[in-house]
Amino acid sequence: MTTSSIRLALTLAASLAIVPAAFAAPPTKTGKTDKGSVLTDAKGMTLYTFDKDTNGKSACNGPCATNWPVLKAEASDAPGEGYTVITRDDGSRQWAYKGKPLYTFAKDQKPGDITGDGFLNGAWHLAMP
C-alpha cells in the first residue's frame, strides 16, 4: 500500500467510527394517549416532567424518585436532538428532554396510562414530543 492509500484508509475508518454516535437512537419513543402523543420509555410507559426541576437539575430524590422512577442514562449515552444527560444528586445519570428531566410514574400499570398527569397540584406533566 502507498502512503496516500493508507491515509485514505485511516480517514475512512475514522469517519465510520463517528457514524454510530451521530445516528444514535433517541432514548424515548412516542406513544398515544387520551391526551394525544407523549414521550414514552422503551417499554411504552408514559414519561413525565416535574415543575420543581430547574435548569436541568432534578428536584425529585429519595421517596419522590421511588414514586417517579427516573429515565436512567448510562455513562456511554450521548445527548442529541433535544436530549441531554444530567447528573443526579446521587451521582447517577438521567435523561432530560429540552432541559427537563424525564420520569415514569409508579402507579401507571400499562402503556398509555397517564395517571400521573396533574399530580401534586399540577406539578407533574406529560412529556410531549
TrEMBL record:
Signal sequence extent: 1-24
Biological process according to GO: alkane catabolic process
Protein name, entry field: Lipoprotein
Protein source organism: Bradyrhizobium neotropicale
Keyword annotations from UniProtKB, A to Z: Signal
Phylogenetic lineage: Bacteria, Pseudomonadati, Pseudomonadota, Alphaproteobacteria, Hyphomicrobiales
Keyword Signal part of the UniProt annotation: yes
Lineage top rank: taxon: Bacteria
